[in-house]
């Protein structure tokens, strides 16, 4: 328990935690079940190329999402690249800048220009009211991101896409097991792409999946992720290697058996954070809509200290000294990262909400590696910081 400012590690006290608390610590399902699957893979000597576990993982995913087709891929970035190509996007595609840089890179990698659209202040998602003004004769699509697993305004974006004859793709990297108006994310737009990276609440070490209800598109995606092979010795398409391997699929299936437990732990942590942080002025926990299905995998704070003496970055530094490794996704925003910063140096002028968020938002550790007692300590430290803003500021300035 830290009572005084001198107890804070940044002022010479002992760090609150011996082992760092990370954002994105992987969740591990039942180890025995996983190892049994690994032994089976080794016994059968079938390691990749659409093996039995990948097929089973794809079926399980499609069932969870309620979609016709789910294609497992080696990671979401390649999944996005494949979906973008399969949809025939070219020229310009409208995306938020408030996203992981992979969303923009997946376009730029194939020489498609990402056109950055501002986000909505409360949802953190692409603002449909700002999309239409960015459409030009070169625009071929919209790529929305369900940031923190909270759905984009899918209907409004669908209407705009329909009106202007644009493709609509969703980066659903954060959004497995989340719904929008009761319908699972996975079936919106032309396709949606999930990530199962180690840091995601359900992981396959590295991995992803493309979900769609379009038979033709799904067939094309399957060909593209396997070099364009339509059968032995028969390449009918330009393709790449986007396949998921069997070990990843085994991890995915094992995690899937454990999915409800992970969500329950994330939900418990979220409620604990709401409890310990409520009433701390200037710290708001981003809320999830309890009417929808959620995975609660991110604890997102909006930090705006009352006296504005300390900012988000100061608080992050104090937490890091305590070995609470909070993050500041998606600082500094795609438009302030290369190559976009050089290509479009004035992009920020049209992105005031994005720049506001990238300066204020931070994520706290959660998942199965974090428990209530640790969250209590994090809450107590944040409270101590905010209650003593002026004193901390003066001590930091005089160091
Ligand atoms: N679209 C969106 C909206 C995304 O957020 C992402 C990925 C993608 C697309 C692309 O998906 P993938 O191609 O990756 O499938 C991390 C992840 O690497 C990245 O997957 C994720 N989004 C992004 C939000 O976070 P970094 O740069 O923060 O990773 P890193 O290595 O700093 O790790 C984050 C934290 O997790 C650290 O505190 C350490 C901890 N960690 C990490 C790994 C890898 C562990 O405890 N164990 C581990 O094995 O990007």
Order of helices and strands: EHHEHEHEHEHEEEEEHHHEEHEHHEHH
Per CATH, the class of the largest domain reads: Alpha Beta
In this entry the ligands are: ligand T4K
What is the number of helical segments per DSSP (H or I, 4+ residues)? Answer: 14
Estimate the mean pLDDT confidence: 96
Radius of gyration: 22 Å
- Shape, principal axes of CA atoms: globular
| Main sheet properties | 7 strands, mixed
Instruction: Identify the CATH architecture of the largest domain.
Output: 3-Layer(aba) Sandwich
At CATH level 3, the topology of the largest domain is Aspartate Aminotransferase, domain 2
**Amino- and carboxy-terminal Cα gap:** 24 Å
What does this structure look like?
By secondary structure, the protein is of the alpha/beta class. It has 2 domains: 5-22 and 259-326 and 365-397, Alpha-Beta Complex (Aspartate Aminotransferase, domain 1); 31-257, Type I PLP-dependent aspartate aminotransferase-like (Major domain) (Aspartate Aminotransferase, domain 2), CATH 3.40.640. The protein has 14 helices and 14 strands. Strands 2-10-9-6-5-3-4 form a 7-stranded mixed β-sheet, sandwiched between helices. The relative contact order is 0.17. The model has no long low-confidence stretch (mean pLDDT 96). The structure holds ligand T4K. Ligand T4K binds at residues 22-26, 75-77, 99-100, 102-103, 145, 171, 173-174, 195, 197-199, 208, 325, 329.
């Amino acid at each position: 328990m830290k009572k005084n400012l001198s107890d804070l590690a940044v002022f010479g006290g002992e760090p609150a935690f011996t082992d760092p608390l990370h954002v994105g610590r992987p969740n591990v399902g039942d180890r025995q079940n996983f190892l049994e699957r690994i032994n089976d893979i080794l016994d059968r000597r079938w390691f990749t190329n659409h093996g039995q576990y990948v097929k089973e993982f794809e079926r399980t995913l499609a069932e969870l999402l309620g979609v016709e087709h789910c294609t497992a891929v080696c990671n979401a970035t390649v999944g996005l690249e494949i979906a973008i190509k399969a949809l025939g996007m070219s020229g310009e595609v409208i995306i938020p800048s408030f996203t992981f840089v992979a969303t923009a890179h997946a376009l730029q990698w194939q020489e498609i220009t990402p056109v950055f659209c501002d986000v909505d202040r409360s949802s953190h998602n692409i603002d449909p009211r700002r999309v239409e003004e960015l459409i030009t004769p070169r625009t071929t699509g919209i790529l929305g991101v369900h940031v923190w697993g909270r759905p984009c305004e899918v209907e409004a974006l669908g209407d705009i896409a329909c009106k202007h004859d644009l493709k609509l793709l969703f980066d659903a990297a954060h959004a497995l097991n989340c719904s929008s108006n009761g319908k699972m994310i996975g079936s919106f737009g032309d396709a949606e792409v999930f990530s199962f990276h180690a840091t995601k609440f359900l992981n396959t070490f590295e991995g992803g999946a493309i979900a769609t209800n379009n038979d033709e598109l799904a067939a094309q995606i399957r060909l593209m992720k396997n070099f364009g092979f339509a059968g032995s010795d028969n390449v009918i398409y330009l393709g790449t290697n986007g396949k998921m391997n069997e070990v990843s699929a085994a991890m995915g299936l094992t995690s899937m058996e454990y999915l409800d437990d992970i969500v329950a732990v994330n939900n418990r942590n979220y409620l604990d954070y709401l409890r310990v942080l409520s009433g701390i002025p200037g710290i708001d926990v981003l809320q999830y809509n309890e009417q929808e299905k959620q995975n609660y995998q991110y604890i997102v704070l909006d930090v705006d200290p009352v006296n504005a003496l300390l900012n988000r970055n100061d608080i992050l530094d104090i937490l890091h000294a305590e070995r609470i490794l909070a993050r500041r996704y998606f600082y500094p925003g795609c438009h302030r990262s290369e190559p976009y910063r050089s290509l479009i140096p004035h992009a920020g002028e049209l992105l005031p909400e994005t720049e506001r968020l990238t300066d204020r938002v931070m994520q706290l550790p959660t998942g199965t590696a974090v428990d209530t007692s640790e969250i209590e300590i994090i809450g107590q430290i944040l409270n101590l910081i905010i209650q003593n803003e002026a004193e901390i500021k003066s001590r930091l300035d005089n160091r």
